[in-house]
Amino acid sequence: MITLLIIWIAFKWKQLRQIHHHIKGRWYNYIRNWFTLQKYRKLFPKGRLDLHVWNNDDPKHRAIYPFPEEIDYEKPKKNQNEDLFVIGSNVKEKTTIEVYISRKPIINLTKDKQPKDKIHVYLNIRDNNNDVYTLDEVDVVDYSQTEYKACGLSFESLQPNKIARIKFRGYLKRNNEPELVFVRIRFLCLFYSKTFDHQRLFCSNFLAKELSKNKIDLIEPLLENKIEQFCQIKGTFQVETNKINELFFLGTVGRMFPKSNPITRSVTKICGFDKEGRGFQFGLVKMGQTKYRYGFMSHSGERFKLLTNITLTIEEMERLPLIDSYEFEVTFSKSTQNHKVIIKPWKDKWNLIKFNGIEGMCYIENRVLEKSEEVIPSNNERLPCKEMVVSLEQESSKSVELCGGKGASLARLRTLSKTCNEWNVPNAIVVTTNAHAKQIESLNNFQQKMTQLKNNVFKRMDVERTCNEMKQWFGEQSLNNDIKIQVIQMMENEFGNKWHEKKYAIRSSAVWEDSAEMSAAGQMTTFLGINGEQNVMKAIVKCWASQYGLVPIEYARGYGQPLDSLMAVVIQEMIDCDTAGVVFTASPIDGDERFMLITANFGLGESVVSASSDPDTFRLSVNIKSNSHESNKRSVKEIVERSIGKKALVTRLNSNPNHQSDDLSVGICNEKVDDNLTKQSVSDNNLISLGNICLQIHRHYGNPRDIEWGIKADKFYLLQSRPITNLDSNFTSYELMHEMDTPHMDEFEIYSRAHWGENFPGATSWIGAYNFLNGASWMRSQIEQGMKTAEDYNPFKPVLAFFGRHLTDPDILDAFKFMDANAAKPSLFVRIITPFALFIMIILNPRSLRKLKRRVFIEKFGEIVSKLDGVPLKDKQTIIYRTMQDFFPYMRVHGMATLGSSIKSLYLMKLFKSKTSNEQTFEHDHNLLMSHCNDVVSAEVPNLLRIVASQIEDKETFQNLSDQEALTILQDGKTEASKMFKTFLEKHGHRGYREFDPLYLTWGKNPLPCIQVIKSLLKNPSTLEPRKQKSIDELMNELHTPLTWWKRYLIKYWLLPLCRDGVGQRENTKSILIKIQDYYREAMWTLGENLLNEGILPEKDLIFYLKIDETQRLLNGERCPNLVMKARQRKRIYPEMDKLKFDEFIKGFRMAPKSVEKEIPQFTDDAFSLRGTAVTIGAIKARVCVAETIDEAINIKAGDILITYSTDIGWSPYFPLLSGIITEIGGTISHGAVIAREYGIPCLIAVEDACHHFKTGDIVYLDCANALVTKVLE
């Protein structure tokens, strides 16, 4: 034993001397700490988010769905301090980004009992013009369950550990200049590495040496409670109205959860990337007398390597970043290589670095973490309320689930109004969703009628009639007596015994109404000027009934919301206003908070909201010194623009309505006025005061508001407040186009469309692309073959394409040389099995092919749809993907056939090469011999169609038929041509255009393209003749390359038959692969049908514009309007994406298409333009549909630009079809403007005589940037 110990010491002598020098002889502490660390590592062998097991078939282990732990980690913790940071750089363009968000929950709740967070945000961006933009502010905001947000900056996880986005809309300092500039940022963080958990991943040997100065009993308190992940950051950056700039970075995103520590701790870290994609971090942690260094490195998303040695001393690291320049070496685990690091100061905290001679950039930070106290969980959860009627004074009235969006917002507004004397909120009560449920429960046949309504709506059968009947039936019911008693009691409590003599506005308050995602503007009926007990009760019921009307039903269906969701009703005392209108506390177009917009008219605000009158419009400038609403009180500076409207129509309370009348519309009346044309409806002083009041509301909510207001005898009343819809929650076209991008893992990655370009000729649907970008199955295959280990398993790393042809580009050749030089040497096992794998690919693969073909086509192995019958909706997609996973080993057969065919073809080309032959000659001869291959499916398809065409008896008549008529003849006929056509569809019906994309239908589902081919063949009789096949001897005689006798013999009798068979095998395995994909296609269309029938998706094909995890969220029952709207946005921009063309090779970050400029319209000689007012952003060239009345809306086609006089709620069902809207009248808060912003489509209002100047079918260019619509050349 002693002998063995001596031998081991001799063998490790050099290493032991290094350890002895490092620990300064403290062997006892070192050994003790080493065992403590090893014990800790056994308890926690992996990182907290390292959950994926490579050989587990659960979709979560393949990162198809996220684990619950991943979802929980991404969400802000309600009662926990958190720090979030983003650091990134671009070496080539010298651009950098730093984001820091420190969040601390506030224990003592505010007066409105809303949970609050105190958030410190820091943002620093250096753009490619070398301008630096900074933000460093603190604010107190409402707690958010979905994103970290304050001062205009937010970080939101879109898919755990895969994609996140950084948003900013606000004001930054540029180059430390005093004047703030308006900046909009949308960055995507595309993750490609596994997560690095600082509490779980460390080198025990190195850390034991670092801690040898002390005896360590507890490890966890010493380690940083931090997790981070490498990513590519890319997105848009716009200053003021300048051109949008696109920025790219390699970076890291992390979260840190500060611990409750009585001791201040500090962390110094060096974090950066080089151009070749090496991400690294070295740090020093100090906590009291304990100090230790740490570090890690990962190259292009590969497994993290841990720091085992660094020559930069603790004393030197403590002086960072004060040292001018320094040079040191580092060593990482799994390697004995010393990496030389040279760092030189550059600008601010950024330094230039050379990592083994490769240029890079690094960020050096010294952050002190002060003593922190544990956050005590606050008991602020509202208990469920069973009351059917509540006042605005009750705390439960702030519950959206109980009082709906409008009611809850009004309750908060009422509470806020009591803190100041400048303005009031008219008192109100809320008839809650509990009352609605009680009313439904008391009605006979409600469930039966509701089921019939859903069935007709989802199946698009007589929708309008069914909705009208349901609305009328519900509205004719009497209010439940229990509800009636509570309403009367609450009205007496709030408005006195003579409450029935007052006048009230009775409005809907749906749970999803007035949210940041869904405005539901004017969807349900509002009753104004209602008085009398009988009319109030009747209005409550009719308000509930209005949600079953056509427009609200179609609106809810369009967002995937339940058609029978519960709704509250607000009963608010009306003020007979002298003037009323709407305020936007920021520009509704771009969100610029330096300006607010006020629209006004005499009388009630109904004339403004309904766009029935042309109101006054005022633009006010706001004094903004920061983005924080807590630290800086904003105020109105001046009125910068005013537009006095005609105001020919004024809405007022009916001065003497009969409160016993059954007509609920007599509460208000519209008066035509001739003398308002030049009168300003609000005085300048009142405008300034109103603006300052609305800024208080903006400050309280922490976001731009859409506020309805009124003035009576110079007293201000606020009637409603809602967030401006889709100002920050929507997705830009850039985000949607790039969210599925493969992240770049170095600054000079080369992408190619070769090989994949023929299979994916244009843009691919989101769900189709997701299948091919998920690299888990491919990595599992590599682990099974011994090319990777289980520790290498990284389901977040994307799959890169491959191609094969002669390459001459020096950059590409250099890239291959670099990859070869840095590639890991294959294991002994791989070297042994490679010859056997080649033998299988060349000789034995046909046997696997025949077996697989029989199983897939005859036994229908892999068919999915039948397995979904009777399965709960939430489990269906899991069954689909588990079935597809079973087929992955069989999919490898196609890869082996393709590789085998390429190897055989390569040997054939080598035989042609000689000293006398040139490249063109032997390539010509190779192609000649391969032009007559065996069993080639792609050649069989046109041949079968030629046979069908040749057997059609009356060819001339067939050509003159419509495509559908010709198809019917072939499908229903009994001629030879019909039989051959049916045979063709049976054999090749699973094939078609873009057959790898499940969005596109195959020939079996849509045979019309085949009919068009047949008709084209009939027009040219010569194409009906069969192609003459040449024998091998004939082909050999046509060769130009001189061959020796033995080469001719080898080619003729052995190699050429193998090559021809190889092409056939490759084609057949591809056909099998497409058949498997067709099973998947059928399953996804079926799943889309299921979601449509459940009312979760408004159109079944929207499933192809969702990612797999998003689809699963819907299947799990999550009714998320943002997801449905995102799918519709994706569908809208898909044609634009599909037109993009790329070069065969693209180098570096900027993967621009061949033409990055948008199409410039060609104007006709008689071209003309009309100017209006833009209420959204964007531009579109499209066909026009002029519809002055809604009766003419039947002429609208998908993608049209609608031109009309004005729109109201009745036009809403047509909005999903439109690509743009132009109205002759209207305001920024008119129905058309609100819905256009919600749908994200270009819109111009106040385009005078547009209906007269354009006609249906014209092609126009709608340009919101210049507020012009121009007729263009078709």
TrEMBL record:
One of its GO terms (molecular function) is kinase activity. Gene3D superfamilies: ATP-grasp fold, A domain, ATP-grasp fold, B domain, Phosphohistidine domain. Belongs to the PEP-utilizing enzyme family. Residues 1197-1266 form the PEP-utilising enzyme mobile domain. This is Phosphoenolpyruvate synthase-like protein. PANTHER family: PHOSPHOENOLPYRUVATE SYNTHASE-RELATED, PPDK_N DOMAIN-CONTAINING PROTEIN. Residues 401-730 form the Pyruvate phosphate dikinase AMP/ATP-binding domain.
